[in-house]
Amino acid sequence: MATSGQGNEQWFERWREGRIGFHSDSVQPMLARYWSHLSVSTGARVLLPLCGKSGDILWLAQCGHAVLGVELVEQAVRSWFEDQAEALPETVARTNFNRFESPERVGRAGVTFDVGNFFHLDAALSDDIDAFYDRAALIALPEAARQRYALKLAELCRPNVEGLLISLIRDGQRDQGPPYVVTDDEVHRLFAPNFMLERLGERRDERGMTEVVWRLCRRAPLSC
Ligand SMILES: C[S@@+](CC[C@H](N)C(=O)[O-])C[C@H]1O[C@@H](n2cnc3c(N)ncnc32)[C@H](O)[C@@H]1O
């Protein structure tokens, strides 16, 4: 399971060997198209679980959002700083994580990376999250880890926190993830207990893969 050391090793290998076919320097079309469907104010702190060094990080920061990316593999974060031609900042050790901060610059808000295992993020220690964005995070995890992921996300979000999530459906092929297929039913099963869900749209590619975009909004806990 991806939360264990053994499951995580594949990610260290992938980054070491440059097998990062999931990565794009450009913003994801679905993010650019659907982010405005959320009511996230400029200056809001946006959590990106399992963030890699995605082009979405910069795009969100250029929208004025303070990005908090959580990434297991330090090499990915080092590589982000290299790509920005920025010197690697001093790391700040936090419980279970090493923090790297890129301060606000002209044309963009600050970007913070917590390097460590997303599942070890402590809601009590984490900064307040105003919104989140999941691209290739849920679908990077095997089935057994996805329930824990959904619960962790719920734990990190106050009521009314909104997020965009992209799931993946594939036609008639065996599921040899990552990326894993996560059906609409599974998205509902995982998130509906803690989030209101709205299916915003989908995009199918020539390989028979369909990305489905969801708006999630954290429900208030039920009172007795
Ligand atoms: C499929 S990639 C997606 C990266 C990014 N979201 C993107 O769209 O390019 C998944 C990323 O999650 C990281 N990762 C995997 N398990 C993790 C965990 N438990 N905690 C934090 N990061 C993790 C991997 O190192 C990898 O960079």
Automatic annotation (TrEMBL):
Annotated keywords: Cytoplasm, Methyltransferase, S-adenosyl-L-methionine, Transferase
Family matches, as Pfam families: TPMT
UniProt cross-references to SUPFAM superfamilies, sorted A to Z: S-adenosyl-L-methionine-dependent methyltransferases
GO molecular function: thiopurine S-methyltransferase activity
EC supergroup of this enzyme: transferase
Binding site for S-adenosyl-L-methionine: 15, 50, 71, 135
GO biological process terms, semicolon-separated: methylation
Subcellular location: Cytoplasm
Catalytic activities: S-adenosyl-L-methionine + a thiopurine = S-adenosyl-L-homocysteine + a thiopurine S-methylether
E.C. number(s) listed in UniProt: 2.1.1.67
Similarity comment: Belongs to the class I-like SAM-binding methyltransferase superfamily. TPMT family.
PANTHER family: THIOPURINE S-METHYLTRANSFERASE
HAMAP family reported in the protein's UniProt record: Thiopur_methtran (MF_00812)
Protein name: Thiopurine S-methyltransferase
Organism: Kushneria konosiri
Gene that encodes the chain: tpm
